[in-house]
Structures are given as C-alpha cells and as structure tokens.
Specification:
It is a single chain. This protein has 781 residues and is an alpha/beta fold. Strand 3 and strand 4 form a beta hairpin. The chain has 32 helices and 23 strands. An eight-stranded mixed β-sheet has the order 9-8-10-7-11-12-6-13, with helices on both faces. It has a six-stranded parallel β-sheet with strand order 14-21-18-15-17-16. Strands 2-3-4 form a three-stranded antiparallel β-sheet. The termini are far apart. Helix content is 46%, strand content 13%.
C-alpha cells in the first residue's frame, strides 16, 4: 500500500471522526522508502503493513513522550550469525558512522518519523540507540547488514535505512507499537459502565443536603437501620466505628470493615446484613437494600475523590442515601443522569444557632470553658497547649496523626462535665468523626498547607467549605451548649474570617478517578519492561476523561513504587503495596514499609516476633516530644501490618498479636498526650524551632499568644523576634509569605519586643531573678 493510498484513506475517515468520534492513530504505521507502511512484528526482521483505527475522541491529547523510557538492548547477541557478512562484505565503522549521521540529519526522515509517533525527543533517543546497536553489536541482522553494505558501496540510498530504524525504535519504545491499545485501556470517559451489576438495577438516589450539625446524616442512618441490609461508607475510621456501635446498640447486627480491621458480629464469622466501612473498603459486588455515602463533597478531593465516585456509581443498593454539602447537589444530579437514575433532594437547616463574634480573643488569658483553638500546625498545638497550662488551665489535644483511641480519649476528657479540662487545642481533624461539646471555635490562623491537584504543597487561606466545616462543630445539637460561636485569636484575622464565611461554597464540578489494578496489568502486558511508576505515569498521560472527571493525584503511589522498584515482586503484589495508606513524611514508617516489602519478596512470613524486633517492642512512655512522635510512627507501622494482613493473610499471620500490641501502644501514647506539657518542656530546642516555624508558615502568632510567662518562654520569644532578612526574603520568594503578611509579622514582632522589655524590667526587680538579669545584660553586650 502506497503512502498516497494511505493518505487518501485517512482523508476518507475524517467524516467518520466528526460524526462518530472515531480517529485514526498513525503511531503504528511506518513507511519505508518507496514501499509502503511498515509494522514491526515481534520476530526480528519481519515487516508487514497495518493501519489501526481507534474509537478515541478526535480531541485526544498527544502523549507525553518524556515519560517514554527506552529499553536497553544487548549488543553481544549473534543476530543471524555471519549470514550478512557471507553475502556481502565487512562493514567499516567509520563508513557506517558517516552513513548513519547523514540519515539523522535528513529532515525528511525526521518528518516521516514524527508522523508515525516519534517526536524530536524520541527520534533522537531512538537514533542514539540505533547507532550504538549498529556499531557495537557482535553480528547485525542479515537484512540490515545487506542494506548498510549496499549504501556504503554506493548501490543503495541512505533513506533505505528508515524501515530498519523504525523497527529498532519500536523495540526500544514498545508503546509505539500499541499506542491505540494503550489509549483504549486508559479511556476513562464513561466510568458508569465499569459497574455492570449496579447498572443492571434501577437505584433510587436520595441526597440529604445541609450544613454541619443539621441532622442530615441522622436521617440517612435511620433509614439504614430500618432496612433489611445496608452499608455505611464514611471518610474516617472513627465515623465507621461510630455507626458500627450505634447500629449494634440499636439491636441491628452490624460488621465493621476498615483498611486495618474486620469485626464480625457473628461468632462463626458470617457476614451480617449491615456493615459500616471506610469508603475505600465498600464492596461494589454485594447487593444491599440501603447504602449511605457520607461527606459526598469529598468526591472532588485531589487524592481520595475516586473512592466516592466508585461508591456512588458502583454500589448495588436499591436506595443510595448521599449526605453532604448543598454545593454538591447539582453535580451529583448531573452525574446521575449518566446512569439514567433520578435523584430526590432533602434539605436540612442547622439545628442550633451559630454566630461569628465581633471581637477576637487576642490573648489566651481570655479563654473560656468550651473553647476550642484550631491550629493547622502540630508545632502550634505544642506551643499553645504549653502556654495554656502555664496559666494553670488544663487542655485536651487532638491532631491527625494521633491514634483513633487517643483521639476518642481526649474527646471524652474534654466532653466530661466533671473533668477539669475545659479547653481543647486541635487541628482541623475535629472537622469530622468526633462529637465534641464546643461552645466557641477560635481560629489561631486562617492559613493552611494544602496539596493541589498537581501534588504541589502550598500555603493557602482556608476555603469557605473548610471554615464552615470547622466552625460548625460549635454548639452541637444535644450538647450542653445550645448556641455556637466562632472567632479568631488575632484581631486582624477576624474580618478575613467574616469575609470567607460570607461567600457561598464553590459548587462541585468534577469527580475523581483512579487507575485500577486491572488497567495497570493490561498496560504492563503491552509494556512488560516498564516500571510500575512509569506505567502509571504513561497511563495518566494517555488517559481521557470528560469534563465531569479528573484523575486523582498519584504522587504518593509513585513515591512508594519507586521506593520498592528494586525489590522483586509480581505486578499485582507491587500494586497492592503501593496503595498502602502510609505517611511518607515519617522516615521510620517508610523504612518499615521497605523492610516489609523485602521480607515479603523472600516469601518469609512477617511474624509478630519479627515485627517486635523491628519496632523494639516493648516501648516505654515518652520522655519528650521526639519520643511521642516516634511512638505515633510505630503505631502507623502496626497499622500498615494490619492493612497488609487483610491482603496477604499467609504472609502477615499474627494479626491478633499485633492488634493487642497496638492497643497497648495506644495506652502509652494516651499517657504521653495527657502529659504533653511536660514533654514539651523536655524538648526545648524543638519548642523554639516550632515557634519559628509557626510564624514562617504564615500563622501570624501575636505577642499575646506567643509570650510565655517564664524565662524559658522569654528565650523562645527572643529567638522568634529576631527577623532574619534572608529567611524572610526566601519565604516571600517561595510564596510561603506574602509581603503584606511579612509587614504584619514585623509589626507584631516589634510589639513583642516592647512587651518583652516591660516584662524583663518587671522581672529584674525581683531578687530571685538576679542571675537572669546578669545573663541578659551579658547578651546585650
């Protein structure tokens, strides 16, 4: 078939493309000089003609060829032996090099290669590999030897190299030979069709819409409890535990399924009719009468949104009860159009009043019982909790990396009317999963580190949705506080908070998707030599989604894939390991993950004794914050063991012993958190660093919240008050600090220094502070 004939056929297909969204992919078509389009088969030297027509969108994006990694070929292979040499004559490398370089410089060859999938980057890489192969291989294939010999002797044309060059390019870049298949596999435009069981039934969808503390989830759960069978899908283990306990207390047998835990109410291990699970663990094959999907607005979460999409489209339930923000109503209704299912909307109002105060707290001296100070940094939590207890007050502490048992223990302590603890210091972890008796939410800062859809970390002002979710925890229905209040710690933040809350929540416009293990396995079939990280990169690069969806961030997956790439694992096991929910910021957790994978690859079971030696069990109570952080990391490692044990039961056999150990460790961590002020005092360098880090991160701590009453606190305050201009300029340059915020911080630091001078003068008049006075004078010199 000639080039002209192929181009004629291509033009004929254009009408098909416009009307039926089909297109032709030329990446598998290759032309030789004067003979037609070539397609390289697996057998060396075979050349045939082929044209592929795919059903991809006419607007398909070109592949990101920077992700295409060439395969290294051995140059010591014998090829066709010495057949080519016997038929022609020996080839001189100097002549070969001249011929090959002439071929490389021909614009016509580059243009033809570009038309068939080799852009400038790939053409260059393929030529380097081809030249190395020709010059270094022990014995060239007979057909290539003959062609090169003819060109060197003047009997052939340099263009004749092209089909053999393309044959080589398709060997080192196998994706060129199957681009059409890869595009089909990564076509994510109709995810509703992935769940034939759900499409086989007509489901009724009920959206329970309302703000925090409006009773929307309560009404969905009442229907769940009344059903013959049901599944609850929540974003957190704590929420799944809450529904699990509520269901069983109501006389409805309910099982618990999370990534790390399976609890069956039946003594024989038979499944109950009801199950409460984290949303990633819900089964899309089991039929239910009622399904409840909580916090549906998280369908747009850059990392986890795929789990809500999967549950909403895939659950086999007669009734799907969806709970979440009103901002998701229109999008979920539109998504249900793709499945042909109608949606009923029930709207709820907040059960208790809530108001934003007109005055900021400004000083920790103005705290009241029922206050919750919300921070977005663990270091700020350490700093503020220490300052509160320095004033003779007790406080509870809750942040994300604490074990669930410790969070519940601290929540119980704060809620107990007979406990002297009346203040809570927490991160936004309180936004979901914990019932707390809070009167007033106090934002210590409105700046929070976020990860965008590209996986980049950035400092941003909290969104309206986040502000509503957190502030809505105040004045919970049925608590002792019948009205909720919200304010800020710093005066300048209050108008910003009011402005944030004055806006409506941004409507949800997209839902997350994620490549499945089956899709990656099909990719690996076509690209057997690619690494898992590279497979996922290419998948995302080629993936096609319509305007309602996006591919979730895969940076954590790739991080783990690269970490264990050198370990020999089959693809399915490697994929499962890489989906493990671990905190990659914890070096000890990452090291443990690596050791688990290495032990697994040796086919050696990970026993309790092995794990105990690895974590140095038993562990003692923490003596400082560093010890507490390490204990939290060990708890995460045991979580990882339990998570893997439900995927590889034979290799992680001691689940019960590890769970008992984890419960003991939880008690030790609770003991440490109860004495967190003592731990902070024992970690003076960390405390000073935390104070600086909190300000650099944009938390604009004021003099009143950073000024400690003891001499150690004064030293920390002095350290944070000294403004390093190079650090400030670097933070502004990196976007972590705005010029306006920098000016605000400088003003506050100057105020701090004045207050410090006054306090120092007062302390200098006390006889027992003479030594401190001498030290200060010596420092000033």
């Amino acid at each position: 078939m000639s080039v002209n004939r192929c181009m004629y056929l291509f033009s004929r297909l254009q009408r098909h493309i416009r009307t039926r969204t089909t297109s032709t992919t030329a990446g598998t078509c290759h032309a030789s000089s004067g003979s037609g389009f070539l397609h390289k088969q697996r057998q060396a030297g075979s050349v045939v003609c082929s044209i592929h027509v795919s059903s991809n969108s006419s607007s398909q994006k070109p592949p990101d060829t920077s992700l295409f990694v060439p395969i290294s070929l051995k140059t010591d292979c014998s090829g066709d032996g010495s057949v080519g040499l016997e038929l022609t004559q020996p080839l001189h490398k100097s002549e070969l090099l001249k011929v090959l370089n002439r071929f490389y410089k021909k614009k016509e060859m580059q243009k033809m290669a570009s038309d068939h999938g080799l852009d400038a980057r790939l053409f260059h890489q393929a030529f380097i590999s081809f030249r190395k192969f020709v010059l270094e291989v022990t014995s060239l294939p007979a057909d290539l030897h003959i062609i090169l010999s003819d060109i060197c002797s003047g009997a052939g044309h340099v263009d004749d190299i092209y089909p053999y060059f393309m044959r080589h390019a398709k060997i080192i870049f196998p994706m060129l030979d199957c681009m059409d298949d890869l595009r089909k596999i990564s076509d994510l435009r109709v995810p509703a069709n992935w769940y034939p069981e759900a499409r086989a039934i007509q489901r009724k969808v009920i959206f329970h819409a309302g703000p925090t503390n409006s009773g929307k989830t309560y009404h969905a759960i009442q229907r769940y409890l009344a059903a013959k069978s049901g599944v609850y899908c929540g974003p957190l283990k704590l929420l799944a535990h809450e529904i699990f306990e509520k269901s069983n207390n109501a006389g409805v047998p309910c099982d618990l399924v999370t990534g790390e835990e399976r609890t069956f109410m039946d003594s024989d291990g038979r499944a109950s009719g009801h199950v409460a699970c984290t949303i990633e663990m819900c089964s899309v094959n089991t039929p239910y009468e009622v399904a409840v999907i909580d916090e549906i607005q998280m369908i747009r979460d850059p990392s986890r949104g795929w789990a809500w999409t999967r549950a909403l489209l895939g659950l086999c339930a007669e009734e799907i009860h969806v709970c979440g923000e009103p901002a998701a109503i229109d999008f979920i209704r539109e998504l249900m159009y793709t499945t042909g299912e109608e949606m009923e909307v029930n709207t709820y109002q907040r059960l208790t009043p809530f108001k934003i105060l007109d005055q900021a707290v400004e000083s920790l001296d103005n705290l009241r019982p029922g206050d919750c100070i919300v921070c977005f940094s663990k270091n700020d939590i350490y700093s503020i909790s220490r300052q509160i207890e320095a004033r003779g007050l007790e406080c509870a502490v809750i942040y994300g990396s604490l074990p669930p048992g410790t969070k519940l223990s601290q929540a119980k302590k704060f809620n107990d009317p007979d406990d002297p603890c009346k203040i809570l210091v927490a991160t936004d972890a309180i936004g979901m999963g914990l019932n707390l008796s809070i009167k007033r939410i106090i934002f210590n800062s409105l700046i929070k580190p976020n990860v965008n859809e590209k996986g980049e970390k950035q400092m941003e002002t909290i969104s309206t949705s986040q502000a509503l979710q957190i502030s809505g925890r105040a004045g919970r229905y049925a608590s002792k506080f019948t009205e909720g209040e919200g304010t800020t710690m710093h005066r300048d933040d209050l108008p910003v908070l009011k402005e944030i809350l004055s806006h409506s929540v941004d409507p949800i416009e997209t839902a997350g998707l994620h490549p499945t293990a089956e899709q990656i396995e099909m990719f690996a079939y076509h690209l057997p030599d690619a690494t898992l990280s590279n497979l996922v990169d290419i998948f995302v690069s080629l993936s096609q989604v319509d305007g309602m969806f996006f591919v979730c961030n895969i940076d954590d997956f790739k991080f783990l894939a690269d970490m264990i790439q050198h370990i020999p694992l089959n693809l399915r096991s490697r994929y499962v390991f890489c989906t493990a929910p671990i905190n990659k910021k914890q070096p000890f957790v990452c090291t443990s993950f690596l050791k688990f994978a290495r032990q697994f690859s040796r086919d050696e079971p990970l026993t309790f004794d092995w794990v105990g030696r690895h974590v140095s069990w038993p562990l003692s109570a923490p003596k400082n914050i560093k010890d507490l952080v390490h204990l939290e990391a060990v708890h995460d490692v045991l979580d990882l063991y339990l998570w893997l044990s439900y995927r590889f039961m034979d290799m992680f056999p001691d689940t019960a012993l590890v769970r008992e150990t984890q419960q003991e460790l939880d008690d030790i961590i609770q003991q440490g958190v109860r004495n967190i002020t003592r731990l902070i005092r024992a970690t003076d360098p960390l405390q000073t660093q935390g104070s600086r880090g909190g300000q650099a991160g944009g938390n604009n701590a004021s003099a009143s919240s950073n000024h400690l009453t003891n001499s150690r606190g004064q030293r920390a305050q002095r350290g944070s008050g000294e403004m390093d201009s190079s650090l400030a300029s670097r933070l502004v340059r990196d976007g972590l600090l705005t010029p306006d915020l920098l000016q605000q911080l400088q003003k506050e630091w100057s105020k701090d220094q004045k207050l410090e001078f006054i306090n120092q003068s007062a302390l200098d008049t006390e006889p027992h502070n003479n030594n401190n006075k001498g030290k200060r004078k010596k420092k000033k010199k």
